[in-house]
Every structure is written in C-alpha cells, then in structure tokens.
Specification:
The chain has about 325 residues and is α/β, with parallel strands linked by helices. Helix content is about 45%, strand content about 10%. Helix 4 (about 95-110) links the parallel strand 2 and strand 3 (about 115). The longest helix is centred in the last third of the chain and has 21 residues, at about 245-265. The structure holds beta-D-glucopyranose.
Amino acid sequence: MRKLIAAAALALSACSTASDEIASADSTLPISPPPIARCMNLGSALEATYEGEWGYTVRREDLERIKAVGFDTIRLPVRWSAHALEDAPYTLSPDMLARVHEIAGWAETIGLNIIINVHHYDALNDAPEQHEPRLEAIWDQLAASFAGASNLVIFETLNEPHTNMSVARTDALNKRLMQRIRLDNPDRWVILATANWGNLDALEASRPDYDPRVMLTLHSYTPFDFTHQGAPWADAPRTGVRWGTRSDLKEMRADLDDAVEVQTQQRMPVVVGEFGVYEGVPVEARVRWTRAMRTEMEARGLAWCYWDYAGSLKAYELETETWIPEVKAALLD
Ligand code: BGC
C-alpha cells in the first residue's frame, strides 16, 4: 500500500514543478554522504520553556562525555517560539541566542557537529497561516546569527510538524525557509522537517527540492505502544507490550528499507533524527529494540540520533552521573 501511494505521488510530481521532477526522478544526481553518523539528542533542556525546568541543563562536560564514547554529533532541540516576540519583527531573545551560541561554541571546540532546530512550536501546528511568518523571521535571525559558525553547525527547520501542517504545507514552508537560510549560509547542512510527526508515510509523500547539502529526516518510535508504554504524556498502554518477534523485526527492517528508498529517490541522505524507548520500560526490552534499530540503521548506512541523553528516554543517569551501561552498549558496541 505504501508503495502504491509513493508511486501515485511520484506520478503527480511529474506534473508539478521542474525541480520536483528532478528531485524524484534524476537518478544521476549524487547523494552526498551525510556529515553525521552517531548522534545524541539533548532533550529536556532548551526543549522546555526555561532550561532546567525539566531537570536538565546542558553542561560542557556532557558534550565531552558524549564525544569521548564515540558520538560525532549532538542535536539540540530549542523552543525558540518561547523566546521570540509575539509580533513583528519577532525579535529573538539575546539571552537565548547567547546560550545557544555558548553550547555551539563548546561543540565546535570539542569537535562535535551540533544540530540546532526549532522544537515544540505548537501554535504553528494549530494556526500555520498566523505563525509561518513568525517562523520565517526566527530563521532569518538564526541564519544571520550563525552565518559565521563552522560547518559543524547544522540547521533543522522544524521539529515534527503535525495537525494543520500537512505534507504539502510542510514542503512549501521548507522551500521558503531554505531560500532564506541559503542567503547567509550557502553551504551549511540543513535538515528539512518531515510532517506527521516525522513519520515514514509523510517522508515518502514529501517532495523536497534537491540540494546537495540537505538531509531528510525520519522519527521512528514504532511500534509506539511498545516504545511509549507507561510514558505519562503518551496515549499508549501502561505496561506489558513486548517487542522482538521475527515479524516485529521484519517490520522494522521494511520501514528502514523504505527510508533508504526515499533516499535513493530524492537523492538526499535520510537521518533518523529521533528513536528511543521510554525509561519506564524494563531495560532488557529497551535495549532489544534500541540495539536492533541501531544495527539495522547502520547496516543500511543511515545516520541516527538517539532520543535522548538525560530526559525520559535517557541513556545517561544524571543522579549517579553514569551512562546506563546497557543502553550505551546498545548504541555503541
Ligand atoms: C518530543 C519529546 C518527547 C520525545 C519522545 C520528542 O519529539 O519533543 O518531548 O520526549 O519526542 O516522545
């Protein structure tokens, strides 16, 4: 079924703009190797309205620790919408900009790529007409502010558009944001947002313009009832969902094969920007899924970002200041 939808969408794209045709049909365009391989999400910090509110504040030693065990990248979710004026010119808070520059500076010194995104812009999903101009202005400011940063700084247009941000609307927004970002950042790697919470169907239906320094993204918490069982914010069973049968693994592999197919069609690398299992799930089960995801992604050459370092799907325990050894091993051994 998924393939049928993809074929229909491809046929449609042939009637659309020239760049759409090139993006989905010109198999001679090079697929650039992604600049990242193993990446850790620093969730629960600047993802909250105020850093620290959710129990985690980013420290330089966290970046050093992440680098030391073998990650090459961090993804920094930032709730910029809580730090910009509500009305034009939508000025970003200088303090928040300075804080993100501080963290980006640490990453650059340590030699980690850092993905800076726009996270939890909930109002945009509810009222895109009203909020898209604000997001464009936020990106104008971010693009100008980081124009002089090294190529270790990577942008990501928006986290998990959903609700009224359809695939078409997200594609159109990505195009406008790219035009603006490219004015000051002609060569910077950018990750484009994928609609429907970053899921596979939306990734397959999306028709982004080809750019040799763009990555597409997939968020995978499938099956959600397993990865999010017990998570207080999720609509999932409390407990008792298992994962790991032959058919579970087959489904995981099929999804990742489809992600690779998107990469081949669109000629741009796909990064799995979020995947992980809620901390309340027994560690053996968390690790079974996480290790399977990691090895299956790496077998296909897909870059990935684990969700997350010290939040609710954590790999690192702040209370004891130690990695959770099983989760760390599932990601890196
Ligand atoms: C959300 C986080 C959440 C995670 C796992 C992310 O996209 O921003 O708040 O913890 O997904 O559900």
